## 1
Amino acid sequence: MKNSQLYKGSLNTIIMKLLEEKGRMYGYEITQKVKEITKGELNITEGALYPALHKLEADGLLDVEVEKVDNRLRKYYKLTEKGTTETVNRLAELEEFIKNMQTIVNPKLNY
Amino acid sequence: MKLTAENIQFIDNYLKNSEVIYYEIRMEMLDHVATAVEQKMQSENLDFYDAFKSYMVVNKREILKGNKLWPGFSKDIISNFLKFLFQPIMILIGVSIYVFYKNVDVSSYFSESFAFRNLFTVILISLALLKIVYFRVVLKQRFYMIEKIFGLLNVFYYLQMFFLNQRNNETPSVFTITMFSYLFIAYLIYFTKQVYKFNTYKKQFI
């Protein structure tokens, strides 16, 4: 992941935000969607994505659906009720963080 | 361009040979690699083997990072079990066990050669044997989701070594035997709940 230390703390929120918009997604789809949205600037690696998805699943924030697709099984992730509520909280927290960082980095800009 | 059943089997064998032992983890990695290889075959006009080789040269290390799992001490399961221990109904069970041991001298029902504290070791060994039978005979495939629950037995083993020293002949305190009885009863309830959840989960894969 580009500038991994800066993005690392926001990975779960990014995943949850995407799932909130798309309903359900599988691992590869998430990596491609992030790449597409950020025009290739942000590349979520498999080594960071899957442990994050498994952790969110273990915490009861994500639910899993498995389907057979083209001779193989595909694991789709979707937000649970708890996950949907948590997404709202985490997005608000992230927005607040961005605002504060903006104030520190560039105090002349007023949001 | 879609992969054939033989191509999928090839990737599965490759991952098995790379020691991706847990079934559900391997299935997810397989789908990731297969989808990426399909994209590569289409965008770069390559055949399966060239696309696979070219993808794995760059991504193998990252892909296999998802396999760095050790069910012996899973932080998730330990923290979820601790949360479970502090649920109101479980605390009520714990208090009932304490009241029971406070009023009944269970040690008098056991002999010197097989003291009450030895019972916990026997339960621990029985649970470890149950684990082997469950994996080898019932499941036949290894699933990380269920294997990590058995990892809690390692924690119990070390706790038991520390609190119920078998070489020490002193009778353990009411608090100690309550703690162990509570842990084992809670574990059995937790394990049953997780197996029930796992059976629904497993049906999706097999």
Note: The mean pLDDT of chain B is 85.
## 2
Amino acid sequence: MFDEMKGNGSTGGAIRPAYTALAAWLDEVKPDVLDFRRREAELLFRRIGITFAVYGDPEAQERLIPFDVIPRILSAPEWETLQRGLEQRVKAINAYIKDIYHRREILKAGIVPEDLVFQNPVFRPEMNGQKVPHDIYVHVAGIDIVRTDADTFYVLEDNARTPSGVSYMLENREIMLRLFPELFSRYRIAPVENYPDELLQTLKSVAPPTASADPTVVLLTPGVHNSAYYEHSFLADKLGVELVEGRDLVAKDDIVYMRTTEGLKRVDVIYRRIDDDFLDPLVFRPDSALGVPGLMSAYQAGNVTLANAVGTGIADDKAVYSYMPQIVKFYLDEEMLLKNVPTWRCREDEHLSYVLDHIEELVVKEVHGSGGYGMLVGPKSDKTTISAFRAKLKSNPKNFIAQPTLALSTCPTCVDEGIAPRHVDLRPFVLSGRDSIRIVPGGLTRVALKKGSLVVNSSQGGGTKDTWVLDR
Amino acid sequence: MLSRTADNLYWLARYVERAEYLARILDTTLRLTALPLAYVGASNEWESAVATAGCASAFFAAHDEANEETVTEFLAFSTSNPSSIRNCFESARLNARAVRTALTIEMWDTINSAWLELRKWGNGPASREEFARFLRWVLESSLRFDGSAYRTMLRNDAYWFSRLGVYIERADNTARILDVKYHLLLPAHEQVGGPLDYFQWSSILRSVSALTAYHWVYRENVKPWLVADLLMLKDEMPRSLANCYDNLMQNLDRIANAYGRQGPAQRQARTVRARLENSRIDEIFQTGLHEFIEEFIEDNNRLGSAIAQQYLM
């Protein structure tokens, strides 16, 4: 088991260089001081109103994601490795989506099976032959990364639709700066606060050619009842753009406007945090009250840019994920820098029988699942759960993939019994604009607060940490 | 600015103002009902409180009798009465949350803390003492909100729309008190100035926090036509109809200047304002206090819809 602070030695191992100052500080600081700051942090979060909703839990309409005050630290060389890998991956994802909606060479070459694309419910035929500004589909990607030892990082999942969590990256840093100034003085930490600025530049860079030199950008939210609403309003505020709901927008003659107190105002770029299905009731789900009738037509006419583009879901489900090394090779003619977790596709008979034989050791996931729902962690599950899952798997194997249970790295974390190692992952955010790919050094570190647990999702009792990337 | 944002700001301010008004009505009613019957007469003050709050029909649909228990529950804590103090704070926060970014930290903090605090009160207070504390807390929350808006908001359309909400609601509230109590203000032939009237009149003043102001303005005993004069026509009285319309005019004009366009809302406000300016209290009493107030309430509603039409949709 690899610990980010102590390395591979289970106890008493040498402190890894990036963590020396932190470890020294943890030794000095009195437990009650740490505990006090921890409660202070919670109070701050509650007052700022950073909450999220847990679906299906009426008792907790608004809940705080637990915040852990001990930062997760990455050295400069570690970050540079990640950065190169992320850039490469997102470039390949954009090329892949463009190809699928245009020439489909990767299908013709027989590298990705056709049914994986065409039978995928998130494939959008509306996008066939559709031009998007500068061929960028995924303007904001959240790539989930885990680590198993000092040199090995894996990509666990690509999020190419509407990845969330970046507000925590920013707020966690703010809170840490407020609560632990003395700790910051012992490190040189790369800032993340320029993320909104980078995001705005990215969004403006993909405005339609018809837009003015200073395009109007808005953030489209499903509304206050969405679990990520806090993030939407937070980002709109930091970007200095209007936070709109579907009912604030109107499409007339293929142009999108927002309703303002001074009449209708033209909109050029929509950073939408609402799923494809709900964008436009005339094209997608007719019962959607969240979208804008006529939006797709305006989009297809090229009068408004949607970020991310429609139909990017074909690049981020877990079955496509398993083809990512070939996808990178095909478009960039490069070896993939960031590894994929070995993945068994249950759609293939050989793989399925392996998975059924080894289910106790594997993690089995739904191809379209997210948020840690609908998955089985073999080693942590009892016999009845496993046999129930086995039945589900047999009845619809296409719907599942399986991966080995990775020994995720741990990071020291404040828990009830003191400071103890807990498993973590990392979600950096990758911005793709006309001119460049931008990645703010850091990301969202999620931590599984339950001892031994590997599920870091906030909906399943996970927490977050500030992520420090050290400057050279 | 988005029409919806303006709408949220407007309603946020209205709900906070309404919560404060309900707290004042309840406070005044508690005081009146604490007095021996001889001082207040046999009228049912709780029934009058419900009428003043403007929700008599909703109340009697749910309850047979207006008494301390049913009315406090309905006006303060009820989840089914959309205008209870609880729901006012609930709606205020929902509106605030929807425009989180248009608010200053201080405003958000006030409204969010009030909402968090409200949960502690559960389904109501255990005692009268606790209830009195609750009402004080409501007043304080409203004052904090108003103060934080005044002290921290940029003076732009966001501020002006939120002010419109305050004054439309306030004008409506003051007019409603007068409407329910108008019969008490009409000069009676006999017994003017008896203890019964004194407490009723002073309770009207108290419910708009104007009892001290009255004495400063008139330096006289409490007289019904002066109470009406103060609450309707005196510019310097912060809750008078005249003052509300001064403020409505000013804020509407600022919006019109910023947007470069006057509209129906400005014209409507000007008409009402002119009517208040040109009225004298003795003439109002002669031509009919009740009719005057009823018409005012309608006019005020009309202004509300004009603002909505022009800016909020």
Note: Chain A has 14 helices and 21 strands.
